[in-house]
Specification:
hpI Integrase, Chain A; three-stranded antiparallel sheet; 14 helices; 10 strands; mainly alpha; about 10% strand
Length: about 375
Amino acid sequence: MPRKSVGVRRRGKHSFEIRYYDAAGSRISETVRASTAEVAMAIREDRLADIAAGIAVNPRAGAVRFGELLDDVITDYKVNRLKSLSTMEHRIQKHVRPYFGHLRASTITTAALKTYIVNRQESDAQNATIKRELEVISRAFSLAIEGRKIMASPSIPTLKQNNVRKEFFTPDEVRRLVSALADPYNDFVLFGFLTGWRYSEVSSLEWRNVDFANDEIRLDVGTTKSDEGRVFPLMAELRTLLKRRFDAREARRKDLKVISPYVFAVGPRQKQVGEFRKSWKKGCKTAGLPHVTDATGKVVSTRHHFHDLRRTAAREFQRQGFTEGQIMRMCGWETDSMFRRYNIVTQDDIREKMRAIEAQHEASLKTKLTSS
């Protein structure tokens, strides 16, 4: 049993130094926030109870910065080789770290998180985006508690999210955007439109997955969001796109320092395509797609996003006569409910169908009148 130590010393208006011994007999001095000496003594008793129960105690818990916890999240993603690493890092560096990174983790309360939500909403961030950022924050606290870096975490606020996707491209808009983008982003976007695949699936596509002999693309088990494999047929335009990229790579083989395994590679080291938000915004502006600019004319946001290509592709496949099950297999939806969230039938589709029915009905009436 550890020896008990007496003494609680005031360090400031709302802080005390508590002293105790760990299981190895080493003396620990810890500064804690407390309103009275009695509260500080209660914290000290909690530490002694944890030590007696064999639970590790971290005297730095109150001083750990939240930025350190965010670093642990990044490390965790790398260890587990999660495909969403780059997206998660962008969320951290762009929004979460600037707001919370300098703060002590122990000072971040539920009220502070709600204030963060309000600030993000006022900057026109969608609830779905904010929800992903809250998930990163929640993961940071969970890992810290598992590692005994902190002793408690705040309650993470829940946020209502509208899961129905809203935006479509028209085929003409896609063609204009493709024409406005530089290589390889133009073919990257066109591939997304022709397949309905997720951004990460297009980015990670390798030449070994392309089978020209059998006219198909195969995604390996474990490389998709659902971790299931997938086979996609090489339709004419898709085959032409891939053949163009392959021939271009072969023509530059002598000049390239690195022969990339990726279908869509960029830069001198031929790395897989990452985020290209600036090029996307500039391309949308050039293509005449809806966008918002600041006082200097710089594009700050666009109505369309890459993921809208997935929804657009599903609608095009449906119009071409593919069944719901076939579309789900080709594009990688795991459940009917997930597929329905994309709401691929628009009001215009319904009106078009109604006009077709009315035209058919009128033609039938004319036939009957003529025959009579």
